[in-house]
Structure to design on (563 residues):
């Protein structure tokens, strides 16, 4: 796969605070590449540098072979960018916004209609409504349509699903998969760990550093500990009891169960069950499980200075 | 808590036939529920289902079209200022002032709620000790990490010891460890008798609530303990319950 985005030793500081600290990665042409991390991790700064809206302090970044500092004009022509904050013209209608973006890129809605129609047809019935009066889900679809109407080669989507409910999030990811089929490279950022599995590859990002870059399945196989899901009557008491078990590495609440990880590569589930039953947690159901991306993220976070690359 | 102790507990929020219309649009369509003292009540729904409208009414910021509502024993039509004094509110976007220090923010909120200077000093000291923020007392909010801001925003929202605190997507965008620490603060507040009314898009967090309501198209289509909801909808987790209900929505795009 030829590279679409190449980032080498990129650093950006704001005052004394490093927003991006010596990061390197490559995204292939047509890849759906996810940046997973909390607010303040550096996701937006990275996207702003790659879209030529912010200059790096050091390191090099190329988008489709163009340098973000020297060749910013070319990059601006081939990129689509959907910022995290809604940035369309609130007092223009849906259709006026789309036409505006098509025009400044020297094209028309008609010319690239096929590319956006899957998304745009959801909002087309409201095309005479002002953008400021749309619901969150509709604004998101309009913003994505506007970012794509000039048929970009690379699409940057900064937290497109933040604050969006579980149903709309699923629909949004289905749209991204269809766009990927059109050969567009997509960089998407999200704070939702459960969306990692929908990407070809993911970078887990925290405090301006990439903790790992790999396919979601590899992130999971790279998890170094034994993990069990434990269920008991009271999760608070259970977590406390688990943290007192010899050999425990961590215990975290995961919805209705607790995930307990163990330092040794294995754990005696029966011994754990006996230990819990004798203590305040009482009878517990225990099962060995595969980690989720969220387990992996927390494990990587806890490693002091143990971040990869 | 068991069903029996729950029945005996005092009602902090009572909502009877709440209707809110904007023109011909019915944002809240005959909502009925009550929330008990010390309960963690999850208020879920798709975007546009009518959650924010209902929260604004419960906080005394907007009048209902019709219905009978009390919050902390006060009527939301006639005793709005009393409602406001007895509630706390924290939204996804932190309500702290970036260019004030940690302590100045606490003092500001304490002052707004009419706490005496000495009381503010004592509570602020205890609060910073509990959060491990002693060294951050004189730091500007803009210079402290996001996870700290969030814990502080929550602590400030309950600084005046309200009867009920409304949390509107309090954990949006934070890392998974901080999100879990935040829920430990919620548990503690509930344990201390503060009723917690919380919205979230994280379905694992719905599991942590005592009861969960799910709004669809302005109505409450389900309200029960997470356990009972999962049995009723025959699914493994709350995500399944949510998807089954929200998929049936007609107006999520309005």
């Amino acid at each position: 796969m030829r590279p679409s985005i190449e980032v080498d030793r990129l650093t950006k500081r704001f005052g004394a605070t490093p927003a991006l600290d010596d990061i390197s990665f490559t995204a292939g042409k047509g890849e759906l590449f996810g940046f997973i991390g909390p607010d303040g991790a550096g996701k937006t700064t990275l996207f702003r540098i790659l879209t030529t809206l912010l200059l790096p302090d050091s390191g090099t970044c190329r988008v489709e072979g163009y340098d973000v500092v020297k060749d910013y004009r070319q990059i601006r022509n081939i990129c689509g960018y959907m910022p995290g904050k809604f940035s369309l013209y609130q007092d223009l209608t849906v259709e006026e916004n789309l036409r505006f973006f098509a025009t400044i890129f020297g094209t028309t809605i008609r010319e690239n209609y096929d590319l956006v129609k899957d998304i745009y047809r959801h909002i087309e019935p409201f095309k005479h409504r002002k953008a400021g009066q749309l619901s969150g889900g509709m604004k998101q679809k309009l913003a994505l349509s506007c970012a794509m109407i000039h048929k970009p080669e690379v699409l940057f989507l900064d937290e497109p699903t933040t604050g969006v409910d579980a149903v709309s999030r699923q629909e949004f990811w289905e749209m991204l998969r269809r766009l990927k089929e059109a050969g567009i490279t997509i960089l998407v950022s999200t704070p939702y760990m459960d969306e990692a599995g929908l990407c070809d590859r993911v970078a887990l990002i925290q405090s301006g550093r990439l903790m790992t870059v790999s396919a979601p399945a590899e992130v999971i196989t790279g998890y170094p500990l034994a993990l069990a899901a434990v269920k008991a009557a009271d999760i608070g008491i259970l977590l406390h009891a688990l943290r007192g078990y010899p050999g425990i590495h961590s215990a975290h609440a995961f919805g209705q169960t607790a995930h307990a990880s163990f330092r040794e590569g294995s754990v005696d589930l029966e011994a754990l069950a006996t230990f819990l039953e004798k203590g305040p947690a009482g009878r517990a159901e225990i099962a060995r499980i595969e980690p989720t991306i969220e387990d992996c993220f927390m494990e990587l976070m806890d490693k002091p200075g143990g971040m990869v690359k | 808590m068991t069903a029996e102790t729950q029945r005996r507990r005092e009602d902090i929020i009572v909502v009877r036939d709440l209707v809110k219309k904007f023109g011909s649009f019915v944002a809240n369509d005959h909502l009925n529920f009550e929330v008990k003292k010390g309960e963690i009540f999850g208020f879920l729904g798709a975007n546009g289902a009518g959650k924010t409208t209902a929260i604004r009414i419960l906080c005394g910021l907007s009048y209902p079209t019709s219905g009978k509502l009390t919050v902390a024993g006060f009527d939301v039509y006639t005793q709005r200022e009393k409602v406001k004094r007895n509630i706390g509110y924290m939204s996804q976007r932190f309500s702290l002032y970036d260019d004030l220090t940690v302590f100045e923010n606490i003092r500001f909120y304490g002052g707004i709620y009419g706490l005496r200077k000495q009381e503010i000093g004592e509570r602020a000291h205890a609060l910073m000790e509990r959060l491990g923020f002693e060294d951050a007392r004189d730091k500007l909010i803009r210079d402290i990490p996001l996870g700290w801001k969030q814990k502080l925003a929550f602590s400030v929202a309950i600084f005046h010891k309200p009867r009920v605190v409304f949390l509107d997507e309090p954990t949006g965008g934070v890392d998974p460890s901080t999100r879990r620490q935040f829920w430990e603060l919620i548990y503690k507040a509930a344990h201390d008798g503060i009723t917690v009314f919380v919205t979230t898009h994280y379905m694992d967090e719905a599991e942590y609530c005592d009861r969960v309501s799910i709004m669809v198209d302005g109505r409450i289509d389900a309200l029960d303990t997470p356990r009972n909801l999962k049995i009723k909808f025959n699914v493994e987790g709350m995500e399944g319950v949510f998807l089954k209900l929200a998929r049936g929505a007609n107006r999520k795009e309005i």
In short: Residues 305-309 of chain A have pLDDT under 50 and may be disordered.
